[in-house]
Write a structure and sequence with these properties.
The chain is 44% helix and 7% strand. The protein is built from six helices and three strands. It starts with 20 loop residues before the first helix and ends in a 7-residue tail after the last helix.
Length: 104
């Protein structure tokens, strides 16, 4: 059996770093903490229209979401507690995305 041993030098650009997988996952989770606005939720769900997300997600599931979603009065802004909102979206993926007439 033949074997070949090689030393490989990989140059990592200055704008990039190597991190352990565990650290990377922690960083990803940190992005999902704190408060978000309606634009954050649109980006998170990849829904383009504020009207669509309100009609298909926020209002139909209001009773379930009220603990971590601030439903604004006219002229106020939406607020979302990111971590529980992301968790709810993940746990209810089929219920949300399998709804009839769900248009992104």
């Amino acid at each position: 059996m033949q074997q070949l041993e090689a030393i490989v030098k990989v140059v990592i650009p200055e704008e990039m770093i190597l991190v352990k997988k565990v650290e990377y996952e922690e960083l990803q989770n940190d992005k999902k903490t704190g408060w978000g606005n309606l634009q954050w939720l649109l980006k998170e769900t990849e829904i383009k229209s504020p009207q669509t997300i309100k009609e298909k997600v926020l209002y139909p599931f209001r009773q379930e979401l009220e603990d971590f979603v601030y439903y604004p009065d006219e002229g106020q802004n939406w607020k979302f507690n990111k971590k529980p909102m992301v968790k709810w979206l993940e746990e209810n993926f089929k219920r949300v995305w399998n709804r009839k007439n769900m248009v992104l």
